[in-house]
Design goal:
The structure is a homotetramer. Chain A is an alpha+beta fold. Helix content of chain A is 26%, strand content 39%. In chain A, the strands form three sheets. Chain A has an eight-stranded antiparallel β-sheet with strand order 1-2-3-6-7-8-9-12. Strand 1 of chain B pairs antiparallel with strand 11 of chain C.
């Protein structure tokens, strides 16, 4: 006996830009949207029966059609609107809407000219079911560096260990972060997102790092302490290694000044920091 | 109270090439390896205590050091060897080793010259715990197309539906597939992988497609029927849309001959096909 | 006084797929096309006068509209057809059509199912002017490796030189090659391209390499000797370094067996090999 | 008779980061460097004679070795230092040093924590010969958008033209710009670069665009007028099309509010704007 197990389908990489020209400066919402449905779709697999299969092309149309009326507040609100729309179909049991927002900033005082800020992408994932919903917000692509106050020492050494202990290395990473809002959520998702990003950057700048793991803890703890509307925060941090170049063969001293930045291989540290009571309750 | 929840750390993008020159033609194993550990690491987060933190640099060294002795059979076997090595440390509870193998083929009859076959990547993920292990094998990047016998019709229409029904479209996708071997596994992982790939391609070529969903079912069912050593198979299939170009404004008929290939947006269909008894037993 | 100097404009990344279903197996032409025009366009810059500016959207339409009738032989022939079309406009003095062809191969004996061969991309660039035309053909993305018979020694050493001499290294590269056909060109561009590719691979496999430079010479010379219809051949070869891993700290001998494949930095060697009389005549 | 024609070789993708910690905030120079040599290298091709072939590995070492002493002012100055170093070898006739600088900005008032500014890359290319040198500076990856005051109309229409004329479209592009400094160059390359970028952004924001071509002219002319130290400026501008979505089938008006952003195909407009007397003199 063979059967269909877990499955989902939808449309990804829907590129939608909305411009509001009745504010100064104009407001640009530049989004990449993915919509995925889960529900009673076994017949579409096992019998090739498309009677319940909302076309992914229709999902794309829906994103554009709803943008005028429903993309007026946060991307989280737009995700909800899209989720509720598809949940109206009886065969749909869960809708997951993932949105990336690409920021633009005005050029000087111009009302109608912008540069894209390539420093960070705002992300949201709204999952809507008949019995509830979950909102996760996050950011991606935020590259940060500490030029001092980062160490890595005290780790175990065996015959395969060659890494030297260091009390002063460069710590560089590309932050992907996700956080879950408490059920009632923040009053203003845009403000909440800006606040969490600010806390993340401040905590990253302020702390002394004993390891990437310790940095995740310190930054994550600071976020949860300052933002009671968050239930947890997860980070996925590649360790973008910067190795001190050995210039001694050339008679040149290199006292933590010249580094080679490497792309491969990279450390990867991932963890969720959460409120203990949240866990106890689950 | 704030605590560390689920976490893992390791080294990714370890690029390792091993050449055996005592066979003709030479044998190239070209791998990209990721190692991730899970276990008693809370202190490394909460106290910045690195006493149990095997350096990711050491993981990299280990991959190269073990390659001579242990990378002699399949990548699955090498994944096991790496997994068992790290599991020897008491703080480690689970090791996940993910390996991509990039195939090379000899040039003609040459014993020592090769071209890289960019058509597919073989993948494996070995997860080792004290109480057991799991092996998943797969492939990625396999781009395939059906030029006839692919339809999409009978789907629901609402006011936002503009897609026309079609009994003859191009179906193109980039296959990512994963399968789980039964606990005792195949006798020969290399042969098993080749066989599954062959079945996948044959079933893809043979069937009439009512939708991407139906294709996943038919191909996945064929794989499970012909390969009893598999417990399940999962596929993630982007629908790489090829749209018939409307040339009628130019007085040119285009009877399914000229298409525009598009990259964005794309449909995405993901499902697991499994043996029903496997599910009942879990 | 400020003026417009050299300029061109056009449409890039036109993705066009043509399927001929009246042959067995079906024939797929999967192309990425770029069209660029040069000519009397100064007014479009200096006065914002678009009277002569053929819309790039029209260029895209033209590629699709001409594909039915003119994309029946080689991509070189299609490039000519597109070039001549735009040259009919008096303000256009030169049309450059660049085409990439992505190969597909049938699955077994199937007439209508294919896999994309990711091992190489065929390229062509046709430049058409009122007083003549030039055809360059080429290939890109062909990754090759020699596992023996590749050396690099005898190079100068100064105080900044640390690289060891080697008589047996791995040579790996990703070939981008371009060649110019003699004015009357080959009778059959498809056959000519296949032949040049075969010669390139054979010469790469056969020769002993003293350096990437020497390999370019040997392979390029073989191509020109065997293919009199070519005037020159150029290659751009990144040296995809494979470094022998030093395992001696771990008590393991590594006699050219285990390598780390690197992406950054890479050597880059570029040269044109040509017939001396061709040069003398120009 | 077959011979080597134009050729060059060198090292690309040298990733070098230098941190100066004796200023507040610390100063990060994050560079990607490519070095290419041209000269008397025919013997390395035709005879496999490496006697004159400075190893590309040595070029990499040199970049790191010289960074301490010579990477203290602009990347242009560092390019000169690298160029002169290699030109000391008699077989070298020309050295081309290409440098990308990735900007970092301090987090708040922190002296030692930074975010990478992904909005633009600064570029320089210094070419040094025995009889002179050329410095080109530039920028890449600067994505900009005008939400009003951009038109495209008055272009010729033929039977293959379907694009509608518009007096109000979105203009979006990813700027790659290059400029040549007059022989004596600017006193301060860092300040000059900042000034040119500012002018480019201001002119982009201020002008009314009749086409991408007209925008290149207006922006380029403004740059040359305000910066007499520049001889010319070139731009390569992809037209990142934003198409108004037709929502009328859904009974929704879309008055230039909701757009689909597209990646393929794209217009590509490239031109050099220069001082006429510079041209007359050449």
């Amino acid at each position: 006996m063979i059967e269909v197990g877990p499955n989902s389908y939808g449309k990804s990489a829907i590129r939608l830009v909305k411009v509001d020209r009745d504010v100064t400066p104009h407001r640009i919402r530049d989004l990449t949207i993915a919509i995925a449905l889960r529900g009673d779709f076994a017949a579409s697999y096992e019998q090739g029966d498309n009677a319940g299969v909302i076309a992914t092309d229709t999902m794309k149309n829906t994103a554009y059609a709803l943008a005028g009326e429903h993309l007026t507040a946060s991307i989280e609100a737009f995700g909800f609107a899209l989720g509720r729309h598809f949940l109206a179909e009886p065969q749909v049991q869960e809708v997951e809407v993932s949105i990336e927002q690409h920021p633009w900033v005005p050029i000087g005082d111009a009302p109608d000219a912008f540069t894209r800020d390539g420093s960070v992408t705002r992300t949201a994932r709204v999952t809507v079911r008949r019995d509830g919903a979950e909102v996760r917000a996050g950011l991606a692509g935020l590259i940060v560096m500490k030029t001092t106050r980062s160490a890595f020492s005290g780790f175990p050494r065996d015959r395969l260990t060659t890494l030297k202990e260091t009390e002063d290395r460069i710590l560089a990473t590309k932050v992907t972060a996700w956080w879950t809002y408490a059920p009632d959520g923040p009053a203003d998702h845009d403000a909440a997102w800006e606040d969490v990003r600010s806390t993340l950057l401040e905590a990253f700048a302020d702390h002394d790092s004993a390891s990437v793991q310790a940095s995740i803890w310190i930054v994550g703890k600071a976020i949860l302490e300052r933002h009671p509307e968050l239930a947890d925060v997860s980070m996925s941090l590649p360790n973008l290694h910067h190795w001190t170049v050995d210039l001694s063969p050339f008679g040149i001293e290199n006292d933590r000044q010249v580094y080679v930045a490497t792309a491969e291989p990279y450390g990867l540290i991932e963890a969720t920091i959460r409120r203990a009571d949240v866990d106890a309750g689950s």
